[in-house]
Amino acid sequence: MSESEYAQEFECSFAAALVGAYYGKDIEKAEADGRICAVPYDKALPVHTFWDLGISDTMSIWFAQILRGREIRWIEYHEESGMGLEHYVKVLKEKGYVYEEIVFPHDGAARELGTGKSRQETMQSLMRGVRVRIVPRANVADGINAARLMIAKSYFDATKCKKGIEALKSYERVYDAKNQVFQSLPKHNWASHGADAFRTGAMGMDENRPSRENIEKYRRHTDNDVKVV
Known about the structure:
alpha/beta; two-stranded antiparallel sheet; seven-stranded mixed beta sheet; Nucleotidyltransferase, domain 5; globular; 8 helices
């Protein structure tokens, strides 16, 4: 019996990582390190959003601020279903953040039959002045490894990211009951959407660390001194 199984079975620990969970131990360590806490929005830094796209299915969005070379601050997580991009543009604008970019997974480049436009193009027309970028399709295992590395330098707002954190903790491999082994593929369930949006961030993170020029650009949005790191 693994440590997590023992904690769940005999110590009634609901915080213990699920057996077969990809990020369970990583989130446990973040909790132990005090990196799941209050993470306020810093007006000195722009916000990046990372998405998992859905219409009838769940649309998931992570909101992050990136302190160059040091830490990633996840200030909010949002998900819902059955709404179009116009609705999510309204959601973004109502939050009052200053956005640097919107990052879609590879399917954001697919063109819709009704309009002939991709969701990237539609979002770009709705959010003028904010870059909308596509992360190319990549191997799922590579994305999961990148996400693990990213969690190690991440801070999560305990309240505003609560559902996203639960998704990361519950993202797990498919279990083959017949052969009593875990398969290499992730299980598609409610947790997949938040985890996939997070993986979009992991695979697109290297390109979008704020430069000195970007931080200077957003200096006017705050009364505080802005430290360029």
